[in-house]
């Protein structure tokens, strides 16, 4: 579903933020992308989503090279960025309808999905209000609901748990799992190692721009005596 082949990104000709990453995410998988601050997670996600171009390498989404056919590649995924920046002079429901229009979601499907996601996230009552009255968490939940409306093949989220209360974080985890169970694929970055350990099929770990592990949690931990957090701290201690 998602393939990265020898992908690198150098900023300002000297700063190598991502260094020769190769990775394959299969249909139906949920992958957690972890790494210390500045390791290259957001840069990688921005390349996957076509926001910035890699300096080297190839990225394919559902078999489509995003640098060669960006519009076709973008039809296959939805993305929730790490900051919920969103047009804020419009109402929540107008934003969701805009997203549904962009992805040709039928009237019946959008009604059902808007209700399902926004009721689960407890923002349904606020949809007729303008987004500038929303809290950070409400904006985040609106963005997530909008991204899920198209039932994307690949769901990409950058630090999605930040700013969510425990109830909303639980809802998001359930939605991510449900999305995979229905055949979708989820790729998300997180500093929440416990969430990653409990939720993900596999974990990809990046450190100083290099992919230092990509495997099921049990293999990364090597022994069940350790938590993912302990192994992470050990593997990334040379900051
Ligand atoms: N636009 C940019 N220009 C120059 N350097 C950048 C730019 N964006 C990111 N970097 C640098 O690239 C490296 C990787 O940054 P990135 O934001 O991808 O890390 P991250 O893993 O997402 O970090 P965090 O967990 O703190 O969000 C950092 O050293 C950062 O300073």
What is the fold-level CATH name, i.e. the topology of the largest domain? Rossmann fold
Q: How many separate domains? A: 2
Poorly predicted runs: none
- Which descriptor suits the 3D outline? globular
CATH class designation of the largest domain: Alpha Beta
Could you name the CATH homologous superfamily of the largest domain? P-loop containing nucleotide triphosphate hydrolases
Largest sheet: 6 strands, mixed
Order of strands, main sheet, comes to: 6-7-8-3-9-10
Structural class: alpha/beta
Rg, nearest Å:
18 Å
Share of residues in helices: 25-40%
Strand content: 25-35%
Instruction: Please give the count of helices.
Output: 9
Order of helices and strands: EEEHEEHEHHHEHEHEEHH
Q: Which molecules are bound in this entry? A: adenosine-5'-triphosphate
Q: What is the CATH architecture assignment of the largest domain?
A: 3-Layer(aba) Sandwich
Separation of the first and last Cα atoms: 32 Å
For the secondary structure, the number of strands is 10
- Mean pLDDT across the residues is 94
InterPro entries: AAA+_ATPase (IPR003593), ABC_transporter-like_ATP-bd (IPR003439), ABC_transporter-like_CS (IPR017871), ABC_Transporter_VariousFunc (IPR051782), P-loop_NTPase (IPR027417)
Pfam family, one: ABC_tran
Protein name: ABC-2 type transport system ATP-binding protein
Domain ABC transporter: 2-233
